[in-house]
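Dear H.,

Thanks for agreeing to be a second pair of eyes. The structure we're designing against is below in token form, covering all 438 positions.
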């Protein structure tokens, strides 16, 4: 039986287990076990919810970094033991990312937000539809909620925009970069002035992949959407012509492009990328105040760019077998449904939260983001958010995205030809998903 369940977790196929409807608990357990991969949710929880927790309930944070699949492995092992351990050892809440959400959503390890946990449709009426689509199972059941709605755009260096375009105004820069032909033309001009349009190979990948019209797999056959081919063609051109700095995302070279001496025009990303990656990366002195004058902090702005897209996000899932249903319900209502909380998170962290009226209100307010030179970037995110469609999300997204990027890198660098790169991609994908075919 365990082999069947493990296969279901690995491939995200449906698991037909008995008793999938968890009964609502009359009371609460004394230990709340929360599985996460970093401290972001812990910070949100401690700031906006911890004071509401019953005094006799202890929170046990199980934090496992996601590198190399370690977090998912740890979570899988815990879920497989859910029926064997004591109530105080059972998983209560766990977090998932968009790329692999369906791996858990399409199993009975996740509680139905409406039927099992008790969240109402009225509770979630203000949430963006695409954030719910990502965690809806094949039977139409909602299996998680998020406080984030992660539309993205182009985060650009103001001083470089002035040098290349003659203006750093987000509206005017947005017009100059409103489609890929314009974006590529500006990349040529930026190169002529000594700047890189992008940091590296995979900076634009999420923009293209999020606008795919087809899922990666149809009837067990791998499908290559035209958007993926367009990303490959652009990245090869940018690499050959020196329009990018040949850096890989998350590398020291990518971060260096954000600093005061950096020559990178801009980066594609959502609000969390600004807050957690670019703001720290911009600083000359990490221990000094985050303010204008410390590195390139404040010398940035945001526009939609050539295509609207979203990237990432963290969903909260309730685990079947939890004896803390009432607390889980209250956490979900507070951290994903409360307009006041959603507004405060956005204003304090710059995050684009999952609440339409809250975001619309901030968009027309006097809110200013200091990293972005005082820009109210929320109103620019709204434009991107309205164009997002997550109906083609599949259980294969994470593996396909990782393999296509790694397989194409040698091609971008001129070490192999395109046919070899495609052969490498198919070989690695079929090893990962032996049930598929070309």
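And this is the sequence the design step returned. I haven't edited it by hand at all.
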């Amino acid at each position: 039986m365990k082999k069947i369940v493990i296969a279901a977790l690995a491939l995200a196929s449906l698991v037909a287990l008995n008793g999938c409807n968890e009964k609502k608990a009359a009371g609460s357990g004394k230990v709340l076990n929360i599985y996460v991969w970093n401290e972001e949710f812990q910070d949100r929880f401690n700031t906006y919810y911890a004071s509401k927790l019953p005094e006799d309930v202890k929170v046990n944070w199980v934090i496992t970094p996601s590198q190399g699949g370690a977090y998912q492995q740890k979570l899988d092992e815990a879920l497989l033991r859910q029926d064997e351990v004591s109530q105080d050892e059972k998983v209560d809440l766990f977090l998932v990312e968009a790329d692999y959400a369906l791996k858990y959503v399409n199993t009975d390890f996740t509680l139905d937000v409406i039927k099992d946990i008790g969240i109402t449709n009225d509770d979630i009426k203000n949430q963006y539809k695409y954030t719910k689509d990502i965690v809806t199972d094949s039977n139409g059941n909602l299996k998680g909620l998020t406080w984030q709605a992660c539309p993205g755009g182009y985060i650009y260096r103001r001083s470089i925009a002035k040098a290349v375009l003659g203006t750093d105004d987000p509206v005017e820069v947005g017009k100059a970069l409103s489609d890929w032909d314009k974006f590529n033309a500006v990349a040529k001009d930026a190169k002529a002035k000594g700047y890189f349009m992008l940091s590296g190979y995979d900076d634009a990948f999420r923009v293209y992949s999020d606008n795919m019209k087809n899922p990666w797999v149809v009837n067990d056959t791998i499908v290559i959407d035209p958007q993926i081919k367009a990303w490959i063609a652009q990245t090869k051109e940018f690499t050959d012509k020196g329009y990018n700095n040949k850096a890989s995302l998350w590398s020291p070279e990518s971060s260096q492009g954000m600093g005061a001496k950096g020559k990178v025009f801009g980066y594609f990303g959502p609000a969390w990328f600004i807050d957690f990656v670019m703001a720290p990366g911009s600083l000359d002195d990490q221990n000094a105040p985050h303010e204008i004058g410390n590195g390139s902090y404040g010398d940035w702005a945001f526009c939609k760019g050539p295509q609207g897209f979203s990237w990432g996000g963290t969903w909260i899932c309730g685990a079947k077998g939890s004896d803390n249903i009432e607390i889980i319900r209250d956490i979900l209502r507070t951290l994903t449904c409360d307009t006041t909380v959603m507004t405060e998170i956005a204003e304090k962290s710059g995050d684009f939260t999952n609440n339409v009226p809250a975001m619309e209100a901030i968009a027309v307010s006097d809110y200013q983001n200091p990293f972005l030179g005082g820009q109210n970037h929320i109103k620019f995110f709204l434009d991107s958010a309205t164009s997002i469609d997550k109906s083609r999300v599949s259980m294969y997204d994470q593996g396909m995205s990782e393999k296509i990027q790694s397989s194409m890198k040698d091609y971008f660098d001129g070490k192999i030809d395109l046919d070899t790169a495609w052969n490498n991609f198919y070989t690695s994908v079929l090893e990962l998903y032996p049930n598929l075919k070309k």
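Two observations from my side: The chain has 19 helices and twelve strands. Residues 226-241 form the longest helix (16 residues).

Warmly,
E.
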